[in-house]
């Protein structure tokens, strides 16, 4: 395993990594940065394509030992503390990070599955909410997640951390939701929306074998034009008389009900 020491702030690789802290830079290079042992382990487990691995000089010995048993086919770099700190987003970094390629998932085979559950997200803007929804989607075995226009950047560092690695395992598709819904309907997939005025509760509704759950913006909910495409709407009862649940909570409740029904 060969380690390259970066000593100049003019280094080409270092400049690229700094660009990856912006959405424009990530889109240009089709890669993103991940930090910490857990995300790197999840990336390895998923078979993600590594572009580079970077460690802080002061913790080099620790990570050399780690990568001797978790081998990755990518260049290995050692950065001074100041250089490393210029790249990280976390307050207490672990001394290791990586550049990873964005994965392109194959959509058509998933839409043909006999039993499937999709998540359609319309303008979910909070990074923590999107990350939590993706983490829950992985746990619930969701078939795929569609990110509509206005949804926060999937590769925003806060989103990536909040997924706890789910970003490497759940098929994710940025799409125009109205077009995606039409394609799903042609495949016989039922679109389930939510409304406080719906005539049935989520646990009364028998989810079909092929279902897509539609969730919306934290403040406005689902765009009315998109919600109008739903085949059915359900409500989550709130006996405490609160106005609404957080979108990640709503998503978790509906995904769990879908899973619960599949065990009956």
Automatic annotation (TrEMBL):
GO annotations of cellular component type: cytoplasm
Entry keyword set: Methyltransferase, Transferase
Domain annotation RNA 2-O ribose methyltransferase substrate binding: ranges: 33-106
GO molecular function list: RNA binding; RNA methyltransferase activity
Keyword Transferase set for record: yes
Transmembrane segments: none
Annotated family: Belongs to the class IV-like SAM-binding methyltransferase superfamily. RNA methyltransferase TrmH family.
Annotated protein name in UniProt: TrmH family RNA methyltransferase
Organism: Baia soyae
